[in-house]
Write the structure tokens for this entry.
Amino acid sequence: MEKTDAELVAAVRQGDLAGFETLVARYQPRVFATARRYARRESEVEDIVQEAFIKAYQKLDSFRGEAPFEHWLMRLTVRTCYDALRAHQRNREFSYTDLSPAESDWLERFSADPEAASENAAAARELVQRVLEELPPAARLIINLLEIEERSVKEIALLTGWSVPLVKVRAFRARAMMRKCLAKMLKEKNL
Amino acid sequence: MNLENLQHKLILAARAHPPEDSVPYAFEQRIMARLTEYRADRWLTWSRLLWRAVAPCLGIMALVSVLSLTFESSLGDSEVLANDLDNTVLAAVANPGDAW
């Protein structure tokens, strides 16, 4: 019979490192999926996941068991992703004239008839990634959590450690920033 | 062009394709190797600190030894002082008739 998370955590606290390996194996797919929202290159994703699990091991004593281990680990993962975004913050300005032909084509189709441009197109996914990469770390995090993952403001406050009013203010600013990026992109493409 | 509509459409595109949750082969072993290194590093740091503390501790021990040997001769004086203190503190108990 498989051990529960609480049993494994207790074993790790008593020095059983193998218990932690079981926890890693159990939750690494979720941690990988979260990290892939914030990093494109697979090497960056792996670094984030590794950092998240090492932090989890180091801070295991602070896990009080009031919430499920998975929630605690996801909080740690989101904060690690945010730290990684801040550490790799790029100052360069991306030029939207570098869009691929498929992306330009999707934008032109959307410009002509918004209903004709499908949201299932790979080009749309690439475009949203480009726009998100342009945003500052806090704005990118909030757009991902609130708009893409459709989490509630309270959940985001818990995940990030920010207060509820701060999440709301940052969400408002992030949406405005995203629209500004889109406006810039359309201007550069003369659309 | 309607920016809000475009923003909504792009967000729908991102929602429609959540990232994969695939894991590289034996990734947990890589994490465990890092953790083993980390634990070893922690003990190594601790043992280094202890070794560094050896010389100052020996120095303090030598200094205390020298001081105690140097002032050993004046130990008699301190015994007299201790007796005087005892007499003063216990004066009221030893001679209750003298107490006001």
User: Anything to note?
Assistant: Residues 36 and 85 of chain B are 61 Å apart (CA to CA). Chain B has a mean pLDDT of 83. DSSP finds four helices and no strands in chain B. The first helix of chain B runs from residue 3 to 16.
